[in-house]
Amino acid sequence: MSTTAANYSDDPVSPELRAQYAANDITVLWESPNGALPPPSERARVWHWGDIRPVMFETAKITLPAIIERRVMQLVNPTVDNPGSESIAGLLNAGIQALMPGEHARPHRHSMHALRFVLEGHGAETVVEGKSCAMEPGDLIVTPGWTWHEHRNVEGQPTVWVDILDAALHRAFGTARFQPGPIQSPRSVIADAAFTSGAFVPVAAQVEAQSYSPIFRYSAADARRAVEVAPTAADGSRTVRYADPVTGGAVLPTIDCYLTQIEAGTATHAVRSSASALCVVVDGEGETQVGDDLVSWGPKDVFSLPQGQWVSHRCKHGKARLFTASNREVFRHLGLLTEELAA
Ligand code: GTQ
Ligand code: FE2
User: Fold this and answer.
1) Are residues 8 and 91 in the same domain?
2) Is 165 touching ligand 1 by the criterion CB < 6 Å?
3) How many domains is the chain partitioned into structurally?
4) Are 205 and 278 in a shared domain?
5) pLDDT at position 186
6) DSSP string of 97-136, one letter each residue
């Protein structure tokens, strides 16, 4: 009938039918924003060390025991389209944590996979399933999901690090679990030293059964030595992956880490990934093109790499070293990883 539209004020659906939809919790696909996704709105965000270091040290003056244990300033990218995720990029979370001399964050464990990248300090340690991991600047320490861990600074210097976690992923999956200490049923672990020769790995059932790296600490010195002798890519940069020595794969099932070295005056070829990532600047100064945004950076700055954006890093001064943590393994396992290199 040609009168239909006029009767409903241009809405082809009658008010009575709309009411039926509402009463039955129904929406209609032809009006759904998910049918044709809008262009991604997430933008790169940088946290400059010079801005956040004083805020962290001011925060560290608050010494209530309950705050010491969770003294993390979460880096929340306001453009991430996922309310409540508190993420820095996509489903990745990051925060800055400080532990002052004499402080202790007691043992606990959680289903979230996490890692820490140390920014400054000396003498603190993270204990993971009984293994002591020294926290020196540039060190990577991984705390795989459901491993007991605690942080101690007995008499070291004030120590500050970046926490990187897959917390928003667990929130989305409904799998976030947390258990405070005291430690129950600790796992048996093998000393990191058993894996560091590179050419040999111990043959042990416990190593073969686990889905994460048996190495919990990747030292800055080892990483630097490795990247310096890595072959150059076509753009002249060198990259090493922090590898599980048993599988050769990522350090954690959900977070994959890399160190890239870029010579002054050079830039990396643009790459684009369906996964999200973030970078911590180890040293050097430069800028990164992320889609339409240009991010300037220096030592200890942290910046996000939203999914779907073309990314190219340029080193302006010094020899730049960038630590990158990506959730590409999540995407790869689900058959959703696309990675492109600009022509
Ligand atoms: O240091 O163990 O940023 O459990 C969030 C949760 C750090 C930690 C975070 C944690 C930790
Ligand atoms: Fe934790």
Assistant:
1) no
2) yes
3) 2
4) yes
5) 87
6) EEE-TTEEEEEEEESS-EEEEEEE-SSEEEEETTEEEEE-
Domain shared by 170 and 60, yes or no:
yes
Q: What range defines the domain where residue 281 resides?
A: 46-341
The per-residue pLDDT for range 285-296, each reduced to its tens digit, is 999 999 999 999
pTM exceeds 0.85 for this model: yes
Closest atom of ligand 1 to 178 CA is 4
Per-residue pLDDT tens digits for 56-79: 999 999 999 999 999 999 999 999
Output DSSP code: residue 64: -
Mapping DSSP to helix (H, G, I), strand (E, B) and coil, where does residue 167 land?
helix
Ligand 1 atom closest to residue 149's alpha carbon, by position in its atom list: 2
CA-proximal residue: ligand 1, atom 9 (nearest): 163
Residues 138, 101 share a domain: yes
* pLDDT for residue 37 is more than 70: no
Ligand 1 lined by 163 (C-beta under 6 Å): yes
Which sign, positive or negative, has the C-alpha torsion 121, 258, 276, 255?
Answer: negative
Kindly report, residue by residue over 170-202, the tens digit of the pLDDT. 999 999 999 999 999 888 899 988 988 788 889
- Burial readout 109-122 (b: 16 or more C-beta within 10 A, e: otherwise): bbebbbbbbbbbbe
pLDDT of amino acid 199? 87
The backbone region for 118, taken as left when phi is positive above 0, alpha when psi lies in -120 to 50, beta otherwise, is: beta
Q: Is 256 in the pocket of ligand 1 (CB under 6 A)?
A: no
Ligand nearest to the CA of 95: 1
